Protein 1
Amino acid sequence: MADQSGSWWQILLGKLGIQPVTSPQPSNTADTAALSPEEAQAYEDLRNSLNVVFDNESNREPTAAETSVTESTLRSAEAPTLRAVPLPISRPGQLLNLPDPKGIARYTITGRVWPNNLGEASICMWKDDKLAAFSLTIDDNHIQDHPFWTQLCDEFGFKATWFVIGNQVSWQNESWANWQALLNAGHDIQSHGYSHLCDAMFYIQREYRQSVEVMMDNLKDAQVVTHAYPFGFKTNKVGSRCECIKTLNDRAEAAKYFLAARDVIGAIAAINKVDFMAVPSISNLRNFFNSTTTFAYFDSIFDVNNKINYRAWYCGHMHHLPDQATKDYMRQVFQHLKKKSADVWVGTFTQIAKYAQQYATAKISNLTVQNKQIRFEVTDQMYDGWFNFPLTIKIRLDTSWGTNLKAVQNGKIIPVQVITYVGAPYALVDAVPDAGLVIVTPA
C-alpha cells in the first residue's frame, strides 16, 4: 500500500488531535494498534461520516465538496464540550409535541363560535379570536438583511422568527450580539441546526442538541424549542456542498428536542391535520397574491368554501434578500397582512406552534357564574415547561357588566377585552393552560 503520510485525511486527523498509523484500513487490527480506544473510535466515526473510499490511490487531493466539509469539521473541532443537560420526557398529560395525525382531523374546523348563555365560554381557535394565523420565518445567518427586516417589522408591528445555524455565528463579522438585539426587540430566535448538517463530526442527535445548547449559552432569555430542518424534512442535499455528508434529519430525534419543526414543502398548514414536526412553508412567499394557486394563495385562509385552507396557518420562509425587487415584494406582503389584521394573527412560528397544540388538547373546567363573578380553569395535555402561551377564552357577558373588566389568574392580572357581536357583549380573556384559577369580574 502507498505511504499515506502527509495525505489530506491524515493532516485532518492530526489537527483533530488524532495520530493514526500509516494505513487507513480499519479492518486490519494492526492499523489502529497505535491508537487508544477513544482515538480509534473517533477515527472510525470520521472515516465513515466522510464516506471516503480509501484504496491504494488514496493519497489524492480532496474534491471541492470534501474540502468544504473538512473546513467545517475543523471549525467544529474547536467547539465547546457538550454539557449534560437533561431533556424533558414526553408523557401523557405533558406532551412535548403532538403525534402525526397522518391526515386524520384532530377536530372539526368551524367559523367563530359565539356562546349564547351568560357565563358560557369557549376556547378561540386562534389568538384574539382571529380567523387564521401567519408566521414569517427567515433561515440562515444573513445578518446583512437585519436592518431591512427590523425596520419593516417595526413599521407594521409584526415579529418574525429567525432560524440560526449555531456554528456560523462567529464567522466573519457576525456575533451573538446581532441575534441578542433581535431577541431583545421581541423577535423569535430558534434552531436551524448546529452545522446545517454540513459537519461530518455531528451525528443527528448532536446536531440537534448542540444547536440548542450553544444558543441557550449565548442568548440571554432565549427559549430554543423550535427548529427548521436544514435541506427540508427529507434532507434533500442534491447539488449542495454538503451532499457527501450522510447525516439526515430525523423526526423522532427532533421530537425529543423541539415542540415543532418547519419543513420546506410549499403548502398551507391545515391546522387540524398538520404534523407539527413537519410544518409546511411557502418559500419566498411565492404566489402569495395569486388566486389561481390555491396551495399558496394567502386569502384562501379566509374562504369558508375552501375545505383545506380555511382558518389555516400560513407559514412562509425566506433566506437572503438578493435585490430591491424582493424587498419591495415583502413590503407588499406586509401591507396586505396589515389590511387583513382584523382576521389574521401575525405571530412568531413558536407562538403559533404553541397555541395550536394547546388548543387541540385544551378544555375549560369548573366554570361557575355567581354574584357578577365568572370563575373557571383551562387545562391542556402539553408540557408546561414549554407550552406557556395564553389561550384566548371567549365568555358571554350580561349587558349590565359594562366594558371595563378585570381578569386574574392565580392572583395575577391577565389581559381581558370586551367585544360585541349582534349586540351581545363578550369577554376575550388570555389565560395560560394549567396556570390556575381564572376569575373575571366588572372592574
Protein 2
Amino acid sequence: MIDTALAYLYKPLAPITKRIRIERKKDRSYDPSHVLVPEGFSVEVVATGLNAPVHCSFDDEGYVYVTESGHKIESKPRVLKVDPRTGEHEVFFDLPEDRWDIYGALTGTLWHDPYLYFSNTDTVSRLRPDGTIEDLVTDLPGRGDHQTNYPVLGPDGKIYWGQGTGTNTAVVGADNFAYEWMKAYPDFHDRPGQDIVLAGHNYEFQNVLGNITETVRTGGYVPFGTETHPGQVIKGTVKASGSVLRCNPDGTAMGQGWNWSPGGCATPTASPFTPTVGCSPPSTASTSATPATSSATSRTSTRSWKGRGTAGRTSPRVSGWMIRTGARGAVGVNRCSPSTPTPTRPSRS
C-alpha cells in the first residue's frame, strides 16, 4: 500500500524533515468563487488570517466561536469570537499549554447555558464563566488518526459527540506512523463497543517503532507489534472507537448514543443534530472478528455544510478563512435561542 510505503520512507527521513521550515512570503488571496455551493447559494468572506480553523458555533446574539485546532502546527489551539457582521475577532479562550497535544486537536465548541463546551483530542470539557476548565469525560480513544469530535446539544438536553477511530482498519499499522501519533503513544489502539472474538489474523509490517529492517506482526484492537490468536476475546467498552457518545451537561450518565461495532465508523459526527448521523466508513480490510464488521450504510445529514469531524475537515471554513453561505441575496447568520445568555470572555487570572 502506498501509505505504508511512505511510512517506511518517512522513518529514516523524519529527523531531517522536522528541521525544514517553510514560510509563506505573502498573504494568500481569498476568492469565494473557489467554494462550490448548491444552486441558489452564495459565499462571502467573513474573517481571514485564521490558523487551522475547523469548527464554528454560535451564541444567541449571532457571534461566532471559531475553533483553531492546533493540529500539527506551531500555533496553539484556541477559540476566537468573531463578529460576522464586521469580521472583527478576538481571542476568547486559549487552551492551556499542558492540555495541548500537537498530534491531537481541539475540534469544536458548543455554547450552552452558561458554559462553553469543547472537545480536545480525548476529553470533553466545559469552560466556566470564571475561566476555569471542568473536565466532563476523559480517557476517550482520540489519540489516533481521528480525534474526539465537536459536541452538540441533543433534543433530549444531553451533550452528544462523535468519537473517531484510532485507525482506519482497527489494526495499528506502519501507515499510522506517518501520522506521528504512534511514536508518542505506542500502546494506543482502537476499542470495540462490545465484546468480540478475534479470528486471530495478524499482519506483517516493518518495525517503524524500532529497527526498520525487522518485521513485526500485529492483530486487531491491540498495540502495534502485538500478535493475536484465534478465539481471543477483546472486551467492549462504552468509550468505544467509531461511536456517537453522550452525557448529561454535567458529565454524568455517559453512554453510547450509537455504535458501529466492531468495525466502527472512522469519523462519526452528530452535528447538526438530525435523525441521521454522518460518517466516513473505515476500511474493512482487517475484518477479523465475530460478529463481522458492521455493514451499516453510511448516511449523510441532509443539512448543508455538515462537518466530517476530523481535524482540518469540519465546516464551514476553508483553509485559514471563514465563510458564510446563504440563499442568494440573503443577509445575516443563523442565531441560537434568545433565551441563552451571551457568554462573557473568561478571566485570565
Protein 3
Amino acid sequence: MEFGNYRVFQDFDFTNAWYQTIGKQKNVDPRIIVSTCDDKPVILFPLGIYQRLGIRRLAWLGSDWNDYNGPVVGDQSLLSSGQDIWTKVFELVGKADILEISKQAPWYGMHTENAVALQESVREDNSTHILDLHSDYQALRKSIYSSRTWQGFERKKRKLKKLGELTFQCETDPSERKRIVEMMLQIKAEDLAARGKKNPFQNCGAANFLPTIAIDCEEISRVYTLRLNGEVLATTFCLVEKNSVLLYQTSYDKNYGFASPGTLLLHFIIFKAAENGFESFDCLFGDEPYKLKICNRSVPVGRVLVPISKLGVALKYFTIGKIVLTRKVKHSPSLYLFARKVNRILSNFGRVR
C-alpha cells in the first residue's frame, strides 16, 4: 500500500510508542478500520475509543499528541469520490457517543465533502506554520531574517564562544538521546510550572513517551543539542518525514537566555535540513511569535464533532461551549492572567502533595 498522504503522526512506530506509554494507561481501546477496493487496502483509520466518566469518545489514536490528525490514504483519488464510508466505520467500531476529530488538516478534506470529511470543520484557534527550504544558503537566510537580525544572532554566538567550546550536533547514541530528552522534559516542566501552565508530560506515562521514541524510533526522530564545553545549553526534539523536518519539542538553559541558545540551535537545524535535501521545516501547531517570524506559510487545521448517541449530542454542545470559553479567556488579558495564576497554584499544590 503506497501512502499518498503519509504523515509521521500516523507512522506505526510513533503510534505504537504513544500507545505503549500513554494509550494503555488511559485504557484507550484501539479501533483500526481498513477500507479496501478489489481486496487491496486503500484507506486506514487509526481510531480508538477513549472512555471517561461513562462517555465513549471516538478519536484518532494519539489525537492529543499529533499535530496533524487523519486517516492513512493509499489512493488520493478516493478523497474526492464522495463515498460515505464513515457510516460503515461507525458500525464497525461498536458503541461510541461522539466522534471528535481535532487538528484535521486540509489534505484530509477539511473544507470539502469527500470520503473522509463528514462536514465542514471549525477552525482551531491556532494553525501550523511551515518554512519552505532552499538549497541556496543565502536565499534561505534572506527568507527568514534581515541581515541586521542575523548580525545580532552572530553577536550572541560570539558571546557564547568566549565562554568556551561551542558545538551543534545531532545525537546518535541511544542512551545519550534518552538522557537528553529526559533532561529536556524536566526543564520544560519547571518552565511550565513557573508560567502557570499545565504540563502535558506529567500524567499517564507521558514522561516516557518521547524517551521511548528517542531510543526505539531513530528513523523518524532526531535529537539536536547545542553544547558549551560539553554541557547541554539547548535541546530540540524533531520528527522526520520524507520531505520535511518537524519541530516537536524544545528547551534551553535559562541561565544562558541572554544568548538565545534555543534560537541558535533552531537556525542550525533549519540549515542542516536544507543541506540534507529536505523541502520544508514544519514548526507544527501553535501561534508562538518565533514561528510567525521564521515561517513563510501557515496551514489552518480544523475540528469536527459528530454526535453518535443522544449523550453525544449533549457532549457536542458542552465541548463547543468549552471552546468558546477558552477563546474568550485567551483574548482577554485579565481573564488569561487569572487563569495562569490558578494553574500555577494548582501546579504547586500537585508538587507539594
Protein 4
Amino acid sequence: MKKYFFITFVSALLFVMPAFAMPADSSMNVEYGSAKSFDGSTKKLTMDLFFPAREKGKKYPLVILMHGGGFVSGSKEAMKGHCRVLADSGFIAVSINYRKGWDQGKNPYTCEGDIESFQKAVYRATQDAYAAVHFLIDNSDAFAIDTSWIFSGGSSAGAVLALNLAYLKNDYVKKHFKKAYKALGSLDVAADTKTPFTIKGICSMWGGLSDSTLINRKSAVPTIFYHGTSDIVVPYDIGRFGTVCDNYPYIFGSACLYRQTVAAGKAAVLNTSVGGKHGPKEYWYKVTMSNTACFFKKIMSNTASAHSLTSFRSSEKTSGVSNQHEIFLQGSSLNILKLHKGSMRNFIPA
C-alpha cells in the first residue's frame, strides 16, 4: 500500500493572503538577476521591497523573506503581509522569487520523487537567496540598508532557505553535495568578488535544516522558531521529510534546532503549537511577524534570550501536555544527534 503525504506547503498554497493597500514607500518587481531554471529556461529573478517611514541620511536593518511551496510553487506575493508588518516595525523587508521545480514522480503525493533532482532544486533556490542578498548590499545606499544588520526568514521551503543562508557555505557543499556543486557551480557565486555578509538573526516558520551539526558555538545564529507538533511535512523535531517516506532524507525541525542553538550559547525562541499541523493557523502573519520584529530588535540591542512558548489548539486535550513538553525541550540534543550520526547530512525536502 502506497504511503501518501502532502508535499505542498500549507503556508504557500492554502493561506490566502488578504488584499492590502500598497505601502506608501515600496519598490515592486525589482530584478536582481537571472539564471537557468529546472526546465532549462532562463528565469528572471525579482523581489519586492517594503520600506519603513524613512528619515534622510538614516539606514535601516534588512529582513529578507522567502515564501514556501515545496520548491515547486509559490511566489513572493505570499509574503506581502509579512513584509508590511516588518516595515511598520522599522525594517526594510524584502520578499524574493527564486527558481523552483524538481522531478516529483508520476504522483506528487507519494514517495516517488527524485531526491537528486530535489537536492538541486534546493541548491538553485539557495543560490538565488545568496544572489538577492548581494544585490541588496550592492544597492544598500540607494535603498538605505544598514548592512551590519541583515536578517533572514521564511515559511516552510522559505524557512529552509532562511536557515541555509546562515549555515550553508561553499566549503561545506563542495564536500557534502558534490553532485549539485558539480552540476550547478558555487552555492554563493559571488562569495569571492562581493562584500561578505553575516546573517544576524533568523525567523524559521515550520522549516528545517539538513544537518543539525551546522549549528555550533562558532556558527550559531539567534533564531525564532514556529512549528506544530503534528506537522507531517517537516517534522517538529527529527524525522524524515513527509514522515512516512523511508527513502527520503532526515530533516531536523524546530525543536532540535532550538536545542542546538541554545546549547551553542545563542538566543532562541521556540513557539510550539501542540497538535498544530504544517503552518498552524494561530501563527498567521500578524502574530509571527510582530513577535519576530521584537526578537530581531532584541538581538540588535543585545537583550535577546532563550525560552520556549507553547500554544494549545482548542481540539487538543491539554492535561499534562505542558509539563511533558518542557521536559522534552530540556533533553540533550547531543544524545539525539548521536542516534542519527551518519544520516544527518541530507538536503531537506521542505
